Amino acid sequence: MGRYEDILWYSLGEDVKEATIFPLADVHLGAEGAEVQAFYALVNQIAKEPNSYVTLQGDLIDNGTRNSVTNIFKATMPPSQQKREMAKALEPIRDKILCVLPGNHERRSGKDADDDPMYDIAAKLDLEDRYREDIAFVRIALGRNRSHTGHGRQYSYLLACVHGAGGGMLPGAGVNRADRFMQAMDGVDVFIHGHSHKPYALRGSKLVVDVPNKRVTRRPTLSMCAGAWLGFVGYPVEKLMTPAAMAGANKLLLHGTRHRFEAVI
């Protein structure tokens, strides 16, 4: 288990021209409406793609308890089995996992006991060093910016990953919360959250004041929300919520031939 101040540092190689990052969150394995077969299919696809990686951003299991809003009598399996099944599902992409974060559903266990199912999943995969309790900063370098002399640095990107919170029924609330939070983080290229089950991508920019060179420049930013894997059944219907996007993950593309990052929803 590491502190959020400790950046997770990765170099994907100078010959990598593009990398795909899949933020995986809100699978809710064990919930009545979880579309787990679609999730398993994506994991198998990622396992076969050499330059595809994932961030695990919470609520991978539903983890219903007696004190939660989840109807535990409609769960497809108990939390202990959910934990084992998720670790087993992620084993083929173990080496592609960049960070591991809990969501509010995993944190339910910590309210009554000193327990975190997501940490247990990370431990099962021998990835405790990639686990973060609240936020993970992930630096990814790839490709090479070659000058006329043949030398140069790799293209580098900094991601900030959380599970997320709040949001409300309307998408704008979650977008505003995420955009405001990103403004507090200097140097972050991409901010990724989950929780709201409303995948989106929002481009922005920040002013960079370069005092030694007496210049002010702009650098691009991107905030995005991971997809979810719940069907329209049970709790959202009872609360008269509108259907969320179809089950699936969005993805982040990082380029290794120029400094560019983009979301595919």
Portion in strands: 25-35%
Gyration radius from CA atoms, angstroms? 19 Å
Number of strands: 11
Strand order of the largest sheet: 1-5-6-7-9-8
Biggest sheet features: 6 strands, mixed
| Backbone structural class | alpha/beta
Q: Can you tell me the overall shape?
A: globular
Tally of helical segments: 6
Percent range for helical residues?
10-25%
Name the poorly predicted regions: none
End-to-end distance:
31 Å
Q: Report mean pLDDT, rounded to a whole number.
A: 92
The ordered string of helix (H) and strand (E) elements is: EEHEHEHHEEHEEEHEE
Provide an overview of this structure.
This protein is of the alpha/beta class. The chain has helices at 36-48, 79-90, 104-112, 117-124, 171-182, 235-238, and strands at residues 8-11, 18-24, 52-57, 97-101, 135-142, 155-162, 190-193, 200-210, 215-225, 251-255, 261-264. The strands form 2 sheets. A 6-stranded mixed β-sheet has the order 1-5-6-7-9-8, with helices on one face. The protein has a 5-stranded mixed β-sheet with strand order 4-3-2-10-11, with helices on one face. Helix 2 (79-90) runs parallel beside helix 4. The longest helix has 13 residues, at 36-48. The two termini are 31 Å apart. The model has no long low-confidence stretch (mean pLDDT 92).
